[in-house]
Every structure is written in C-alpha cells, then in structure tokens.
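Human:
Care to share another protein and its fold?

Assistant:
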Amino acid sequence: MLEVFVYSVIILAGYQGFVLVRRWGRAYRLHALMLGADSVVALLAASLMSQEGSERTGELLGTVAVLAYVFLVMVPALLRSLAQQALMRDRIGLALRLLKFREYLQPGLPSQRERETVQTIAQVRAGMADQALTALNAERRAIEEPILRRALDERIVLTLLYARRLPDAAAHFERTLDAVAGPTSAKLLVELVRAYGELGDFDGAARVLGRLEESLGTSEPPVLLLLYRARLSFLAPLGRVAEVEAMLSPPGAMGDMSAAARSYWIGVAKLSRGDREGARVLLAEAVKRAGRDQRARELAETALARVDRAPFEIVSLSGETLALADKIGQLVAAPSAEARMANRFRRVARGAAPVTLSLIAVNVLVAVAVRLLLGPSEEDAVLLRAGANFKPAVAAGEWFRLLTSTVLHAGPVHLLVNMLGLWVLGRFVEPVFGRVRFFAIYLLAGWAGAGASFALGRGVLSVGASGALMGLLGAAIIDLVLHRRAYPEGWRRSILEVLLVVAIVQLVIDLQVEMIDQSAHLGGFLSGGLLGALISPRGRPGSTRAIRMVAALLVVVSVVGLGHASWGLSRKLWPGRWERWAAEGVSIEVPASWTPLDQGTLIAPEIGSGATISLGVGSVEEIQAALKDTLPSAREATDLAAPPGWRAFQDTHEVRTPQETRSFFIFFFAQEGTLRSPIIILRVPVAGAPAMRAILPRLLASASVVLGA
C-alpha cells in the first residue's frame, strides 16, 4: 500500500507545485517549492524501495514523503473548512488559530489575506475596532508603495464594514480605492454593494455593481456566484420582490441558499416595497433560523428593527441606476442557462453532497460491523464471509458478491484511501449530475468494476470501492468533454486537467503495483464514462425525456441489484442457517456461509482462514491405503466426537510464506463397513479445531452417497 501512496505523491505533488507557480506566481512560490521538494523525496524513496538492500530506507523516506504531502495539501484544506464552520458558529478565536496553522503549512498571499480577514472580525467582535483602525492607518501612512497601501485600504474598509460603520466605510472607499485606479478585491466590492444598499445610496450601489459587471464578466463559476450575490444585494433594497424571489427559488442562481438567508433577503425586499407585515414575518423567521451564525442573526435583527420605521423612500434614481436595475431584473426574472450554471456551481463550491456522505457512512458502518461481528477485515476468511468478490463463489452462482464486495475494504488504510477519494470526487460529481444519477453511476460502475475483476482480474479475491470511484472519474471526464458548452471554458479546462492527471496517476500506479486490480479500475472507468454520456443532465434538449427514462431505468436496475445483493448476503450470514451441498457423488449439509472453491471443495471461513472441506466416495480401506502411500505419518483420530460407525484419520502439515508459517490439521472421515461411503476431508487451521469439533456431529450425520453416483 505504501508504494501506491509514494507513486501518487511523485506525480500529484510535482503537478500541483507546477500549477501553483503557473497560476499564482510569487503568491504561492514558497508552497510550490515545498511541494516540488516533496515530489523529489518521493521519487528517491520509490527508487530505493526497488533496490535490494535499500528497502527499509526507501520505506522510511516514502512514509516521510506521504506524511509531508498530507500536511501540505490535505490538512490545509481541512483547516480552511473547519475555520469556515467555526466562523459560522461565531467561534472567531478558534477560526483564527486554524487559519494561522494553515498559513504555516500553505504559505502564500491568499492564505495570509484569509487570516487577516478573520483577524479583523476578531478585533471588531472584541470591541477593538478603533484600536485596529488606528494601527492600520499608522501603517498606511508609513508605506509609500501603492500596491501595499491599497491592500491596507481594503483592510480598513473591511474593518469599518464589519464594525457596521457603513458611512465611514463608503467614505474611505470613495476617497482611496475608488478615486485611484487599481485592482480591488471582488469580495470587498460585493460587500460595498450591500453597504450602499443599506444606506439607501442606490446610485453608489449601482456604481460599484457596474464596476463589478464590467471588470469581472461571467466567464468563471466563482465570478458568477459573486455577481449574483452583488445583484441580490442591489435588488433587494430597491424593493424588487419578484426578481429577488426568482433568484432565490430552486431553479434560480441562488436557489440553494439557506432558509434563513432566503427569508432575510425576501424580507428586506418586502420591507423596501412597503409590505411591513410580510417583512416582519420573514425577518423574524430569519432571526429564528440563523442558528449559531451570529453575523446572519445580527443582520436579520437590524432589518427587523427597521420594520416599524418608514420603509426606504426611493425619491429619485438616476437614469443609469434605473437602467441597471431593469437590466439585472430581466436577467434574474426567469431561470437562464447562466443562472442554472451559477446555482449548480454554488452547490459544487459548498460541497452539497448528501448521497456522497451517505455512501461514506455506509462504507464505514460496514467496516465497523465486519470488525465487530466477523473479525479483522485484513483476513481473507473474514472478507469471504462478508461477501467479497471471490471468483469460484461467483462462478457457482453467488452473483451478489459483485455488489457486496464494493462496500468491503481490506483494512482501515484501504478504507481511508477510498473514502478520501469518494469525498473529493463525490463533492464535485454529485452536484453536477444530481443525486439520483450520481447514485446510479456509483452503484453500476462499482458493479461493472467487480464484474471486470471477476472476468479478467488476476486475483481470486477482491474488495473495495475503487471501481465505483473510477466510474465517477470517468463520468466527470466524459461530461466535461462532451458538453463543453455547458461549462465556462477556463474553469472546464482547469478541472478537466486535474481529473486527467488523477486518471494518469491511477494508470501509473496500476502498472507499477501488482496488488492493484487493474481490471476493476478499467471496468469502472469505462462504464462510468458510458453512463455519464448516457444520462448527463446536459444532453440535447430534444433528448431530455429519453435521458430521464434511461436514468430512471438504471436507478431501478441499481435498486433491484442492491436488493438481490442484500438478500443473498443475508442468507449467507443468517445465524445457524445450514443448506445442502452435493458434489463428487456425496450430499451433505453445511453452514450457509461456506463458499465454493471448486467443483468438489468448499471454503469454511467460520472455522478459520484457509479451512476447506472436500468430498468423495470410497471406503475406509481405500483411505488407509492412500494415506500409507502419501501421508505415512497420518494416524487414526480417536478423540473426535464422530457419530457411531465413522472412522477418522488425521495428519498435520505446515504452509510457509515469506511473512509467516501456519499449521493445519487434515482430517479424513469415512463410514465403516461399506464400499461406497461418503469421504469427507477437512483442512483446518490449528486454532480452528474447536470450532470444527462443534459442528462435526451434524456435518457427518447429514452425509450420504447420492444414488446413481
């Protein structure tokens, strides 16, 4: 498994370092160098691991490289997400500490800006806005570099906005950032549109919004989200209730906003329109639903306090402001392709993926259940009982294993790797395809991957969700390629590039690491791509109905397959359930969990790893003669509780592997006094002998020779 991680780090760390330098330049130069160094260390580790005598050194370096990648890439993303959650719950101090730690791991200007923003919020919350502003103004006077002064001006305006000193914020903006040509943060401009709207200065709000519209365009999803947020902040104080409701309806650009935010904005629009009672109800609901988001609650409470005052009096607006309001009103009044794109990518940005979370929960719960009820999932016998994709069992008719194997994992590391992959891919693919289509792609691609492993794979036993994950990857790539016009080109190209790199990384790993099931990965990838092409919600308008019918059919197939798998596995695991098995002329009852290995042999996982039972027809004398020639050390077993009339013989042997040496008992059973007795051969690990003795009486009592055999 370490080899897999090392090869991943070689490619991913090098690629991400290159991308950071190409796209961000000096802003992330140090972090790019750190990633490049990690890629080099991983490359050295891979080289040493393949050289005889240097394996331990290579494994040590490889572990260091993998851990370094985790802390350079994965941990910063987690810290940023946790900081955002802490901010929503008004735990400013915790958010600031998380972002400071993130800045150590991911140094660069964007990380610094995020930390400074939260630091501003913390100072305002602590009642230190005046001290913070004094320090910022002193620092500004001491700096002559225009770019640095502009950055400080943005922090000053932001501090004033968070302190709710809106007139001062607008005045400082107009005196510095607006009066002097230069770039201004788009996020700050959005906040200023909102501030001007609250002040009733609609010409000022229109001026800032017009600047946003002209400078940003609508080429990238993050820009679309900012523009629609600014448009909402502009239209609501103008009392454009219909347009605001259209934006906040499910098909609209901001349709997935929280219930609290939806109530707030519609309430503001109704208040500005003069509907005090409607505004009071909605704003009170916004306060109630704000939960731990203190800023949202404060904004709703401030608006609610204005309900009993006179609503905004729009005495007169300039022609430019009216024209802009009418233009934006027409843009948002009816759902458009741009609005649907903004809504979709708002869900992608938020990672709104309930099905993904549910699938992760199912995989984790299955792993816990297997560990508690059956034993360590690293053992083949445990996986076999739990429903692993075991070729002889599938060939014997246990087709449910093709699906149940996709939720099983060989140990916690295997589970962790696949769940991280599902989290990353699912948060993109689910919002793009929708929950129902996403579920169908995941389930059917996993099924197809397991089927490819059964038909073409080199191994006999396989488990894991990697086939389903490769299916999600294939579906995402094919959708970005076939429906390029449905996505902003720059964004599409960058995401497609990342997904192709991930696919190449997986291909390299498959070719380098023998334990990887390439057939399952390839089968999942190709089937996911085919499914993505068939049921993409961005198909041609004329084929929408057909696409929905195909998607519905695939979902039905998925559910039926899931039901079949659940029923088949439950029959195998039902406590105390036995079933009759016939082979080589003998019929016998065995526990239902025992699994076919070949035509005349069953694997007995309940007895232990490596336990088997084989059948035949013969006599005691034939067994004795065979043992004398092949196993001269075999002796008669007199201490077994066999039914009357049965003779038992036993021997021991060892199985040696590079990792361990295992000891087994071999028991031979036959009925005395008959030439056509059932012959039963049990191969039992030493530790499984007590379990074998417990079921032996019923096992032998049920054995009989099949007539005509």
In short: The longest strand covers residues 646-656. The CA atoms of residues 642 and 697 lie 6 Å apart.
